[in-house]
UniProtKB/TrEMBL annotation:
Ketosynthase family 3 (KS3) domain segment(s): 2-409
Enzyme class: transferase
Keyword Electron transport on entry: no
UniProt keyword terms in alphabetical order: Acyltransferase, Fatty acid biosynthesis, Fatty acid metabolism, Lipid biosynthesis, Lipid metabolism, Transferase
Molecular function, one GO term: 3-oxoacyl-[acyl-carrier-protein] synthase activity
Species this chain originates from: Collinsella tanakaei YIT 12063
Active-site residues, as the UniProt record annotates them: 163
Family: Belongs to the thiolase-like superfamily. Beta-ketoacyl-ACP synthases family.
GO biological process, one term: fatty acid biosynthetic process
Source organism superkingdom: Bacteria
Function: Involved in the type II fatty acid elongation cycle. Catalyzes the elongation of a wide range of acyl-ACP by the addition of two carbons from malonyl-ACP to an acyl acceptor. Can efficiently catalyze the conversion of palmitoleoyl-ACP (cis-hexadec-9-enoyl-ACP) to cis-vaccenoyl-ACP (cis-octadec-11-enoyl-ACP), an essential step in the thermal regulation of fatty acid composition.
Name by which UniProt lists this protein: 3-oxoacyl-[acyl-carrier-protein] synthase 2
Pathway assignment: Lipid metabolism; fatty acid biosynthesis
Amino acid sequence: MKRRVVITGMGAITPLGNSAEDTWAAALRGTCGIGPITRYDASAQRVHLAAEVKDWSAADALGAQESKHLARFTQLALAAAREAVEASGLDLDAMDRTRAGVSVSSGIGGVEETENQQTRCLTRGFDRCSPFYIPMGISNMAAGNIAIAFGLQGMCTCPVAACAGGSNAVGDAFRHIRDGYAEVMVAGGTEAAITPLSVGGFTTMRALHAGDDPSCASIPFDARRSGFVMGEGAGMLVLEELEHARARGVGIIAEVAGYGVTCDAHHITSPAPQGEGGARAMAQALDDAGVTPDQVDYINAHGTSTSLNDSCETAAIKTVFGPRAYEIAVSSTKSMTGHLLGAAGAVEAVLCAQVLRDGMVPPTINYRETDPACDLDYVTEGARRMPVRYALSNSLGFGGHNACLLFKKWEG
């Protein structure tokens, strides 16, 4: 018999707020987290908008000394993990830390450090590179630093799967507990890639929206959509084996019920026709949980605001759910947060857990013009109060990576 896995703690730092609950409240208000880039001077580039974390200081959150030699993506991850662990009420000294681990994704890792050190070394010589560059820059260091901070000695890993990575991290941690290898996992994703090179790279491949009006920038499923908006942040979950959580008498937020993961094996950036790979991932997640399509009430869509993603994802949902697709509430919270790359699936997992807990569905904001290829119920009128039994979260990444998580309302 498969072991059950529940969520007992959550943390988030996003363009909408500097905690999981602040992010949730802003999402229900339909807040747009997008604005002019302030992380660097973007005046010479075509893209001037991003979804930045606001009014947050690593020194204040982590301490000046501790944060000094951590890249921004690790700083965000560590702060969100601290929130999640504190919320879970884990007694770290009383638990077997060899049965607790970390699974945290980042798509690009410390790209800001790479840019900074490259600039420095071109003038000073490459043997003058900072000795902290490698341990700050490599993508697994967010996971590693979380393990060090809490003394978690089980599996510590960093799935790197572009925009699907955050969901892979949560799904892999779910399986690790369910299959008996751990009782507790800190799982999530983090990204801090609002940098000249990252923005320039996505711009030249025509993936980013290039306008200057935040209300028209990230508009998933809208006929006017023209690319995604780069975001930054981190989302973390404490996943726990059900009986371990019950023994602690801790409050349970939601249950992780299923996980599907596939590859398009089609193209480096474009999804497979009709979202075939994404459809298989959704179907796998349902099958993994033993859930039928009529039991799903909400889908947090990948919904990037790119032409191909949104139409292919809509087609994939129809493939899996048939006529039922038109009865499911579907929203893209990227309309508010922008695209957090390797952190996206993790932040959206936090939001799905809150949907199930509170019976509220966040909206897709700034939707105005219907696209015939995108004709589902995208919750465009504002947050919607409704009962949700199961919530599905889709993440679809460059390279053809598809990951889908299914969450269940906790009913005791």
